[in-house]
Design a protein that fits this description.
288 residues, alpha/beta, Rossmann fold, 2 domains, six-stranded parallel beta sheet, three-stranded parallel beta sheet, 11 strands, 16% strand, globular, binds nicotinamide-adenine-dinucleotide
């Protein structure tokens, strides 16, 4: 059996259709387009690519885009003041802070200064906390992308399924575990200590839904995959000039029922979710 591919692009296209309509409706209500402000401190080739993709997607969807560049030597206090100015700026619907930040700036601390209403990456503790209660309007982009991929599988009933997440980061594994729990999925999270203990294969072998977000090429072996499992590979690794995931794709696809390609799986969806978050942020600001 060869698995069905879970491609992010087609799911992203459907989400973008809704965003375009919502952005236009907001433009008419507000008299201006909703706006995403991206903050970059210093230069970083990785974030340049992401910023370009944000700009292109925003413009395509009727969302204004503004890049606020801060010098690499900007102090933490200066950056906080810059964020506070944007929090008060009614034309800025959403704020995203590009990572990585220079070493002298504490990213986790800074994220707390973005107003929760404008925090389109859901990194503020208030937005994270809302996920616990199943009330979040703005979701972390990568975790939400994984949920969208699951939702795109026709006839899939999440209730009661057994999922294993490998990776417990704050942007992927932890929020995703809560999103799955909110759907009554029995959820296990594995992480570095699971790997060190040598029990990772045992957990993976039980997974009806497997989501891997580690950042180590081929860490999940193809023959660990349960027959008929749904496999979502979040990992992005460059190996000999090629981008590959964390799961041994060629072997895994022979056992899985559905599997994401890397690239082309989760990646194309995350920026669409980011744009959807800008729309959600603009809508909730209209109500407040
Ligand atoms: P992270 O470094 O913050 O977290 C890595 C996780 O892997 C940790 O929970 C760690 O405990 C776990 N881990 C490390 N070694 C392990 C081992 N041997 N066994 C089991 N678990 C182990 O990473 P992150 O920011 O969550 O990103 C993970 C991967 O996902 C990276 O490759 C990143 O590039 C990719 N990513 C992709 C997207 C996308 O849009 N496709 C978005 C975010 C992250």
């Amino acid at each position: 059996m060869s698995a069905q591919l879970l491609e992010g692009k087609s799911v992203a296209l459907k989400i973008k259709e809704h965003i375009r309509l919502d952005a236009e409706a907001l433009r008419q209500k507000l008299g201006r387009a909703p706006k995403l402000v991206s903050i970059q401190v210093g230069e970083n080739p990785g974030s340049e690519v992401y910023i370009k993709s944000q700009e292109k997607n925003a413009k395509d969807l009727g969302i204004e885009f503004d890049l606020k560049k801060f010098d690499a030597a900007t102090t933490q206090d200066e950056l906080i003041k810059g964020i506070e100015r944007l929090n008060c700026d009614k034309t800025a619907s959403g704020i995203i802070l590009q990572m990585p930040l220079p070493q002298h700036i504490d990213g986790k601390l800074i994220s707390r200064y973005i107003s929760p209403e404008k925090d389109v990456e859901a990194v503020h503790p208030q937005n994270m906390g809302e996920i616990v209660f199943g009330k979040a309007r703005i979701l972390p982009c990568t975790a939400a992308s994984c949920m969208e991929l699951l939702n795109s599988i026709q006839g899939l009933e999440l209730y009661g399924k057994e999922a294993v997440i490998v990776g417990h980061s704050e942007i992927v594994g932890k929020p995703l575990a809560l999103l799955l729990l909110n759907k009554f999925v029995t959820t296990t999270i594995c992480h570095i200590a699971t790997g060190q203990r040598g029990t990772l294969p045992e957990f993976v072998k039980k997974a009806e839904i497997l989501i891997v977000a580690v950042g180590k090429a081929g860490i999940v072996k193809g023959d660990w995959i349960k027959e008929g499992a749904i496999v979502i590979d979040v990992g992005i690794n460059r190996v000999e000039g090629k981008i590959v995931g964390d799961v041994e794709f060629d072997k895994a696809k022979e056992k899985a029922s559905h599997i994401t390609p890397v690239p082309g799986g989760v990646g194309p969806l995350t920026v669409a979710i980011l744009m959807r978050n800008v729309i959600e942020a603009a809508k909730s600001q209209l109500l407040s």
